[in-house]
Write a structure and sequence with these properties.
- By secondary structure, this protein is α/β, with parallel strands linked by helices.
- The protein has a domain of about 120 residues: Rossmann fold.
- Helices cover about 40% and strands about 25% of the residues.
- It has a six-stranded mixed sheet, sandwiched between helices.
- A hairpin with a 2-residue loop joins strand 4 and strand 5.
- Helix 4 crosses helix 5.
- The site of adenosine-5'-diphosphate has 11 residues, from strand 2 and helix 1.
C-alpha cells in the first residue's frame, strides 16, 4: 500500500533521513522507533509532503507517486497524520475540532450535517463522545491525544501516521490508547505507521517494527526480534550515555 524507497532528507550538512526503504501493507500496524534525533519525525514529514525528499526519494501510495505533492492532496489520498505536539484548537469545542478534520478528509467539502455525523461517529469510536461539547483546551493530555486521533479518523483515512501519541501518558492511558489503535486496524482496516520513542508502549500492538538511528534504518522485524537486537540495544544505550 505504502512503498517508500530511498527516502532522504538533508538539512545543510546533516543527513536526517539516509536512504530509508520500507513498505506498509493493508491493515498493518508498523512501529517506527529510534533514539531522539534519529529522523523519525522528519521521515513522517517526507511522507506527508511537509518536506520534499532529496535525492532519489520515492513515496508511492497505492501506485500513486506522492513525492512532490502538497500535504493537502496527500491527505486527500488518505494519508493523514497526528502531531508530536498536539495541535488542537483550544478555543473550539471537541466536536468542532473533529468536524474540522471531517471537512478536510478524503471526500472534500461535505455538507455540515455529513461532517458533523462523521465527527460524532469518530468521537464515539475513540470513546470521547461525552466530551463533545467541552472546549478542547479544557481536556487533560490523554484526552487531547484522543481528540487528535478522533480528528484524524474523521478524515476517513487509509493510512494513519501517529507521532508519539503515547508520550506523556500513564501506563493505563497508554493501554486504552493502544486498544483503540488496534481496533482502528481490526474494525476499519486502516493501516497505521506509529512513531514512538519508547518501544514498550507499542510492543503489544504493532505487527512489525522499523528502527532508525542517525537517519538510517538499522533493523526491521517482529517486536520480539527487535527487542533482542544488539544493534537496537546499542543505539538506545548510546542515547543515555
Ligand atoms: N527543520 C529542521 N532543520 C534543521 N535540522 C532539523 C530540522 N528538523 C529536524 N532536524 C534535525 O534532524 C535530525 C532528526 O530530527 P527528527 O526527525 O525530529 O528526529 P526524531 O523525531 O527521531 O527525534 C535531528 O538531528 C534534528 O535536529
Ligand atoms: Mg520526533
Amino acid at each position: 500500500m505504502l512503498a517508500v524507497t530511498d527516502a532522504r532528507k538533508e538539512f545543510g550538512g546533516l543527513v536526517a533521513v539516509d536512504d530509508v526503504t520500507f513498505e506498509i501493507g493493508d491493515a498493518e500496524i508498523v512501529g517506527l522507533i529510534g533514539p531522539n534525533g534519529a529522523g523519525k519525525t522528519t521521515l513522517f514529514n517526507v511522507i506527508a509532503g511537509v518536506y520534499r525528499g532529496d535525492g532519489g526519494t520515492s513515496v508511492e501510495f497505492d501506485g500513486t507517486e506522492l513525492t512532490g505533492a502538497e500535504p493537502h492532496s496527500i491527505a486527500r489520498e488518505g494519508v493523514v497524520r497526528t502531531f508530536q505536539i498536539v495541535r488542537t484548537l483550544d478555543e473550539m469545542t471537541v466536536l468542532e475540532n473533529v468536524v474540522a478534520g471531517a471537512t478536510f478528509g478524503t471526500e472534500p467539502n461535505p455538507d455540515r450535517a455529513v461532517a458533523e455525523e462523521r465527527a460524532r461517529e469518530a468521537l464515539a469510536f475513540i470513546g470521547l463522545a461525552d466530551r463533545a461539547a467541552d472546549l478542547a483546551g479544557s481536556l487533560p493530555i490523554a484526552q487531547r491525544k484522543q481528540l487528535e486521533l478522533a480528528r484524524a479518523l474523521a478524515t476517513d483515512p487509509r493510512l494513519l501516521l501517529l507521532d508519539e501519541i503515547a508520550s506523556g501518558l500513564t501506563p493505563g492511558e497508554i493501554a486504552e490508547l493502544t486498544d483503540v489503535i488496534g481496533r482502528i486496524r481490526d474494525e476499519r482496516g486502516i493501516s497505521v505507521f506509529w512513531i514512538e520513542h519508547i518501544m514498550d508502549a507499542i510492543m503489544g500492538t504493532v505487527d512489525r517494527i522499523i528502527v532508525l538511528d542517525s537517519g538510517e534504518k538499522i533493523a526491521e522485524g517482529p517486536p520480539e526480534e527487535i527487542q533482542r537486537d544488539e544493534r537496537v540495544k546499542a543505539a538506545y544505550l548510546g542515547e543515555s550515555a
